[in-house]
Specification:
Number of helices: 9
Order of helices and strands: HEEEHHEEHHHEEEHEHEH
CATH architecture of the largest domain: 3-Layer(aba) Sandwich
CATH topology of the largest domain: Rossmann fold
């Protein structure tokens, strides 16, 4: 019997419960999508995360995606506060109609993030299936996300180091051609471009970041009398522990980041990976100081 038991993996030590939070985009229609999941564990407390990524909302709702994201943020904040105060959602009253709480499911895994991944895999088909089916035939969305990423970094800089805001969106003529090249941030000593790795558009994201690296390389090799000393690309990516990302997507994400790092290093350009705009802005402040 001991030999037979050794063939099977041991039971995970972390036990928790999870619930899905559903939203009816059209109240009363009966059409529901999972917008968030919550997990509770005795050892690691609780965690509420969005179950549908923002880029997927763009695909589904187009110009209404921002409004939908605001609704989801409201629902998540309300549920998070309820769990913080009462330890569960058993008596939670959602902040708006059309929000339905799923049943309680028991789970075991290595930690609470792994339990959240289980919850999303078993309840939110839109998230898991859409991310595994990467779309590479459209460069417009990654470009739009990257522009939003750059604006978010600028907004954070304005709050922590306003004097650096004037260094954003600088244009320089780096060749004899009468063409101006734009840079995300440019000061006398430091220059950086901003890129974003969109999980559903990794190949298109990589092409966009390659172009930004090329622009940095052109400035570095230009004949300008005054050039920055330090060159860098700041890439925004989700966390590798993000429960909305499948293992397959995380592995592709790591591979694409590795490709960018190799390209950057070959030209003496640094790479900094940030998971949010605040982190990117703090790094930028330190490098440009």
């Amino acid at each position: 019997m001991n030999t037979l038991e050794s063939l099977f993996p041991s039971r995970p030590s972390f036990e928790a419960s999870w619930r899905a939070i559903y939203l009816e985009p059209i109240v009363g229609s009966g059409e529901r999508i999972v917008v968030a999941v919550v997990a509770y564990g005795d050892r690691e407390g609780y965690k509420v995360v969005q179950a549908i990524r923002s880029e997927l909302l763009d695909c589904l709702y187009g110009s209404q995606a921002t409004a939908m994201q605001s609704i989801i943020d409201w629902v998540i904040e309300s549920s998070r506060e309820e769990v913080r105060r009462k330890g569960s959602l058993d008596r939670w009253v959602p902040p708006l109609g059309g929000v339905v709480l799923g049943g309680v499911h028991s789970a075991a895994d290595e930690d609470i993030e792994a339990v959240l991944r289980q919850a999303i895999r078993f309840s939110a088909s839109l998230s898991s299936l859409a991310l595994d089916a990467e779309r590479d035939n459209d460069d417009e969305q990654p470009r739009r996300y990257a522009e939003h990423w750059a604006r978010s970094i600028l907004e954070e800089i304005r709050s922590i180091e306003p004097s650096l805001a004037s260094c954003f969106r600088k244009q320089v003529r780096v060749s004899e051609a009468n063409v101006m090249t734009s840079y995300g941030f440019l000061s006398e000593r430091y220059v950086s471009n901003f890129g974003l790795m969109v999980p559903m558009r990794l190949s298109a994201s990589l092409n966009s970041i390659k172009a930004k690296l090329f622009d940095l390389e052109a400035l570095k090799k230009s004949n300008l009398l005054v050039r920055p000393e330090t060159y860098e690309v700041i890439i925004g990516t989700p966390s590798f522990n993000d429960p909305t990302l499948s293992d397959k997507v995380v592995e592709r994400l790591r591979q694409h980041i590795g490709m960018v790092e190799e390209l950057a290093q070959s030209e003496g350009i640094g790479l900094f990976r940030a998971e949010n705009a605040r982190e990117a802005a703090e790094h930028l402040r330190l490098k440009a100081a």
